[in-house]
Protein backbone atom coordinates (compact mmCIF):
# COMPACT_ATOMS: atom_id res chain seq x y z
CA UNK A 1 0.00 0.00 0.00
CA UNK A 2 1.32 3.44 -0.89
CA UNK A 3 0.01 6.44 1.02
CA UNK A 4 2.35 9.21 -0.09
CA UNK A 5 2.20 11.36 -3.14
CA UNK A 6 5.86 11.04 -4.11
CA UNK A 7 8.67 8.56 -3.59
CA UNK A 8 10.76 11.22 -1.84
CA UNK A 9 8.28 11.21 1.06
CA UNK A 10 8.36 7.46 1.60
CA UNK A 11 9.70 6.01 4.82
CA UNK A 12 12.58 3.83 3.69
CA UNK A 13 13.84 1.02 5.88
CA UNK A 14 17.11 -0.64 4.92
CA UNK A 15 19.43 -3.09 6.66
CA UNK A 16 23.07 -2.24 7.31
CA UNK A 17 25.28 -4.99 5.88
CA UNK A 18 27.96 -4.25 8.49
CA UNK A 19 25.88 -4.30 11.65
CA UNK A 20 22.60 -5.95 10.62
CA UNK A 21 20.57 -3.10 12.11
CA UNK A 22 17.66 -1.33 10.49
CA UNK A 23 18.33 2.12 9.03
CA UNK A 24 15.31 4.39 8.57
CA UNK A 25 15.10 7.64 6.62
CA UNK A 26 12.93 9.82 4.42
CA UNK A 27 14.85 11.00 1.33
CA UNK A 28 13.26 14.45 1.11
CA UNK A 29 14.13 15.45 4.68
CA UNK A 30 17.80 15.49 5.49
CA UNK A 31 18.51 15.55 8.37
CA UNK A 32 15.64 13.27 9.23
CA UNK A 33 13.07 14.44 11.78
CA UNK A 34 13.27 13.21 15.38
CA UNK A 35 10.34 10.85 14.90
CA UNK A 36 12.30 8.87 12.26
CA UNK A 37 15.14 8.19 14.71
CA UNK A 38 12.56 7.03 17.28
CA UNK A 39 11.12 4.58 14.73
CA UNK A 40 14.64 3.32 14.02
CA UNK A 41 15.30 2.82 17.74
CA UNK A 42 12.03 0.86 18.13
CA UNK A 43 12.84 -1.37 15.16
CA UNK A 44 16.34 -2.10 16.50
CA UNK A 45 15.26 -2.73 20.11
CA UNK A 46 15.57 -6.35 21.34
CA UNK A 47 11.79 -6.61 21.81
CA UNK A 48 10.06 -4.21 19.38
CA UNK A 49 6.79 -2.85 20.78
CA UNK A 50 4.35 -2.99 17.86
CA UNK A 51 1.79 -0.73 19.58
CA UNK A 52 4.38 2.01 20.08
CA UNK A 53 5.65 1.51 16.54
CA UNK A 54 2.13 1.97 15.14
CA UNK A 55 1.78 5.18 17.16
CA UNK A 56 5.12 6.51 15.88
CA UNK A 57 4.20 5.77 12.26
CA UNK A 58 0.88 7.55 12.76
CA UNK A 59 2.70 10.59 14.19
CA UNK A 60 5.05 10.53 11.21
CA UNK A 61 2.07 10.63 8.83
CA UNK A 62 0.75 13.72 10.62
CA UNK A 63 4.21 15.33 10.49
CA UNK A 64 4.54 14.65 6.75
CA UNK A 65 1.06 16.04 6.07
CA UNK A 66 1.90 19.23 7.97
CA UNK A 67 5.13 19.67 5.97
CA UNK A 68 3.22 19.09 2.72
CA UNK A 69 0.70 21.79 3.69
CA UNK A 70 3.55 24.19 4.52
CA UNK A 71 5.18 23.52 1.15
CA UNK A 72 1.88 24.14 -0.65
CA UNK A 73 1.45 27.47 1.14
CA UNK A 74 4.93 28.68 0.13
CA UNK A 75 3.53 29.85 -3.21
CA UNK A 76 0.54 31.67 -1.71
CA UNK A 77 0.32 34.96 0.21
CA UNK A 78 0.06 33.09 3.51
CA UNK A 79 2.34 31.52 6.10
CA UNK A 80 1.91 28.29 8.05
CA UNK A 81 2.93 27.51 11.61
CA UNK A 82 2.13 25.01 14.31
CA UNK A 83 1.37 27.70 16.90
CA UNK A 84 -0.40 31.01 17.33
CA UNK A 85 2.00 33.67 18.55
CA UNK A 86 -0.09 35.54 21.13
CA UNK A 87 -2.28 32.71 22.42
CA UNK A 88 -1.53 29.58 24.40
CA UNK A 89 -3.40 26.46 23.38
CA UNK A 90 -3.95 25.28 26.97
CA UNK A 91 -5.30 28.57 28.33
CA UNK A 92 -7.93 29.31 25.69
CA UNK A 93 -11.17 27.25 26.02
CA UNK A 94 -11.83 27.27 22.26
CA UNK A 95 -8.28 26.28 21.31
CA UNK A 96 -8.25 23.53 23.94
CA UNK A 97 -10.96 21.65 21.98
CA UNK A 98 -8.81 21.52 18.83
CA UNK A 99 -6.82 18.31 18.32
CA UNK A 100 -3.09 18.02 18.83
CA UNK A 101 -2.35 17.69 15.10
CA UNK A 102 -3.05 21.18 13.84
CA UNK A 103 -1.64 23.81 11.55
CA UNK A 104 -2.34 27.54 11.65
CA UNK A 105 -2.36 29.70 8.53
CA UNK A 106 -1.92 33.48 8.61
CA UNK A 107 -2.98 35.45 5.57
CA UNK A 108 -0.84 38.40 4.50
CA UNK A 109 -3.78 40.40 3.14
CA UNK A 110 -5.83 39.73 6.28
CA UNK A 111 -3.37 40.00 9.19
CA UNK A 112 -6.04 39.55 11.89
CA UNK A 113 -7.50 36.35 10.44
CA UNK A 114 -6.02 32.98 11.35
CA UNK A 115 -7.16 29.67 9.88
CA UNK A 116 -6.67 26.63 12.12
CA UNK A 117 -6.50 23.32 10.28
CA UNK A 118 -7.02 20.10 12.22
CA UNK A 119 -5.56 17.01 10.58
CA UNK A 120 -7.32 13.69 11.10
CA UNK A 121 -6.84 10.36 9.37
CA UNK A 122 -9.27 7.49 9.08
CA UNK A 123 -6.64 4.85 8.61
CA UNK A 124 -6.03 1.49 10.27
CA UNK A 125 -2.34 0.80 10.75
CA UNK A 126 -2.90 -2.92 11.21
CA UNK A 127 -3.35 -3.09 7.42
CA UNK A 128 0.23 -1.93 6.93
CA UNK A 129 1.96 -3.54 9.91
CA UNK A 130 1.12 -7.15 10.64
CA UNK A 131 -0.85 -7.71 13.82
CA UNK A 132 0.62 -9.73 16.66
Summarize the structure.
The protein is of the alpha+beta class and 132 residues long. 30% of the residues lie in helices and 17% in strands.
What is the tally of beta strands? 5
Number of helices: 3
Major sheet summary line = 3 strands, antiparallel
The averaged pLDDT comes out at 78
What's the alpha carbon Rg, rounded to whole Å?
A: 18 Å
The low-confidence runs, each spanning 5 or more residues with pLDDT under 50, are 125-132
Which descriptor suits the 3D outline?
A: elongated
How do the strands of the widest beta sheet line up side by side?
Answer: 3-4-5
- Report the order of strands and helices: EEHHEHEE
Task: Estimate what percentage of residues fall within beta strands.
Answer: 15-25%
Tally of distinct domains: 1
Find the structural class using helix and strand composition: alpha+beta
Helix content: 25-40%
Distance between the termini: 19 Å
